[in-house]
Design goal:
Radius of gyration: 17 Å
CATH superfamily: Gcn5-related N-acetyltransferase (GNAT)
Order of helices and strands: EHHEEEHEHEEH
CATH architecture: 3-Layer(aba) Sandwich
Structural class: alpha+beta
Strand content: 25-35%
Shape: globular
Number of helices: 5
CATH topology: Aminopeptidase
CATH class: Alpha Beta
Strand order of the largest sheet: 1-2-3-4-5-7-6
Distance between the termini: 35 Å
Length: 183
């Protein structure tokens, strides 16, 4: 009689993640991740244009053992901040790299005075949506056909109370979970 196959254990969160400002020297690896994650990746010139807008943009990379394993970007517009992109190398999915990136850029947005944080996410990307919900985002609308390459809709998600004490406590809980290495 064949034995039932045991499910593979979930990947363990990695603690040794360094977050740093994205620089031009990181772009080769960022573009490699971009190509693995998105059907229509950003071009090098688009990343360079974003990086040049330092007063209104912030881009970070996550490095593990010296290698870029993820990145995230945010645009600041007065009291609003918008997540422009966030991606993690598929080999590091489920290891809390995206959580660390999102926590860091949201913390920066609050420090810059953001009260509302928004983003778009594919309607099919349930894993990312679950992470965003944990960060206090909720769906406020839909952009039909937003992702041109697949004609897929995007949910517009917002965290409307980013400047509140309650939101800061939520972020502290997420930070504490990361420090403890909790799932």
């Amino acid at each position: 009689m064949a034995q039932a196959r045991q499910p593979e254990p979930a990947p363990r969160p990695i603690q040794e993640v360094e977050l740093t400002r994205m620089r031009r020297r990181h772009l080769r690896r960022v573009l490699s991740i971009e190509a693995r994650v998105y059907p229509r990746p950003w071009s090098p010139s688009l990343f360079l244009s974003e990086l040049a807008q330092r007063s209104s943009r912030s881009y970070l990379v996550a490095r593990h053992e010296g290698e870029v394993v993820g990145y995230a970007g945010m645009m600041f517009m007065g009291r609003e901040a918008h997540v422009t992109n966030i991606a993690v190398d598929p080999d590091f999915h489920g290891r809390r790299v995206g959580t660390r990136l999102l926590l860091t850029i949201i913390t920066e947005a609050i420090a810059r005075g953001a009260e509302v944080i928004s983003l778009e996410v594919r309607v099919s990307n349930h894993v990312a949506q679950a992470m965003y919900v944990k960060f206090g985002f909720s769906v406020v609308g839909t952009r039909k056909g937003y992702y041109i390459e697949t004609n897929e809709d995007a949910f517009i998600m917002e965290a409307p109370d980013a400047a509140s004490t309650g939101y800061r406590l939520r972020l502290r809980q997420i930070r504490d979970e990361l420090e403890l290495g909790a799932g």
